[in-house]
Amino acid sequence: MQMTKTHNELQNLAMRERAMAVSEREWKHRLRGYGYAIKDTSEGRVLTSIRNNTELCPLPGLLA
What we know:
Elements: H1 5-20, H2 24-33, E1 36-41, E2 44-49, E3 55-58
Antiparallel strand pairs: 1-2, 2-3
Helix pairs in contact: 1-2
């Protein structure tokens, strides 16, 4: 998966929401409000779209 400006923006959103959440469960709930979910894969965690279940960008190791 190639990194683009959009990927960086999505990763920044995920990191910002993680910093504001007190638990992983709350973090996932907050991301769902934006239409995103986290999928665990063999290569790490990936931010996905809830609407069409497509992988959008990998999440940095700190969020994995």
